[in-house]
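Possible regression after last week's pipeline update?

I re-ran a chain I had predicted before the update to compare outputs. Posting the input and the new output here so someone can diff against the archived version. Not blocking, just want to make sure nothing changed silently.
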Amino acid sequence: METLIAIVIGIFLFVWALRARSCLLRFIAFVLFLFYFGFIVWK
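New output (post-update):
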């Protein structure tokens, strides 16, 4: 269940990064995406 939620949030962040208007928002989304998946993988 945790993994499913993590994947959904990861996809949401990825889509947000793709749809973001500004470079700053895109960068923030990308960083969050990396941190989030890094956290899941290393847990």
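Follow-up from reviewer: compared with the archived run. The chain has a mean pLDDT of 80. Marking as no regression found.
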